[in-house]
Every structure is written in C-alpha cells, then in structure tokens.
Amino acid sequence: MIEFGNFTYIPTDEGWLYLAALKDLHTCEIVGWAMDSRMTQTLLADALRAAYWRNKPKPGLLHHSDRGSQYCSHAYRALQVS
Predict the structure, then answer these.
(1) Where are the domains of the chain?
(2) What is d(CA 30, CA 54) in angstroms, rounded to the nearest whole number?
(3) Which of 12, 19, 61, 65 has the smallest CB count inside 10 Å?
(4) How many other C-beta atoms can be found within 10 angstroms of the C-beta atom of residue 1?
(5) What angle do CA 29, 31, 37 make, to 5 degrees?
(6) Which is it for strands 2-12 and 62-65: parallel, antiparallel or unpaired?
(7) pTM (two decimals)
(8) What pLDDT score does 41 carry?
(9) pLDDT tens, 18-71?
(10) C-alpha to C-alpha distance for 70 and 68, rounded to whole angstroms
(11) Where are the beta strands (DSSP E) in the chain?
C-alpha cells in the first residue's frame, strides 16, 4: 500500500477550513483525514494517525507527500503512530 498525503483549504462563512487527507493509491480511497481552522503540523499528524488506526497497515507502507514544510518538520518526521 502506498499512501499519498496532501492538504487543501476550503473557504467558509467563518473563515478558512483546512483539510489534510491521506489517500491509498492502490484503492483510491481516502483512508485518513482531519480538519481544523489552522494548518498546523498537528493537523497533518491527526490525519496520519486516523489513517493508521482505521487501516492498521502492515510493515512496508510507503508514505508520500509534497514535502511541504509541515511534512518536512522535525515533529512530523519523528511521529510514531504504532
């Protein structure tokens, strides 16, 4: 399984809503997501944790992202989800 991570922002009447999502590139399903009013490392970590707990991937999972600053942060790279 290969997961691809990305985020987007959605305009609302109350301001921006940020959505982080992880997609399984084999099934094309969104396997983890999180939303918040701010785009932070925590938002991305919450999406990754959600994907992990929903799917319990086997060893060998590849995780790909656009390598934006949030994905390259020390906190995100050090994240332990198991």
Answers:
(1) 2-77
(2) 11
(3) 12
(4) 14
(5) 115
(6) parallel
(7) 0.76
(8) 80
(9) 999 988 888 889 999 999 998 888 888 898 889 888 888 788 777 777 666 666
(10) 6
(11) 2-12, 15-24, 30-36, 62-65
pLDDT at 34: 95
Q: Could you tell me the two tokens for 11? A: 């305009």
Helices (H), the chain: 41-55, 69-72, 74-77
Tell me if residue 39 falls in helix, strand or coil: coil
pLDDT for position 1: 54
For 59-79, letters b (16+ CB in 10 Å) and e give eeeeeebeeeebbeeeebeee
Q: Which CATH class is domain 2-77?
A: alpha beta
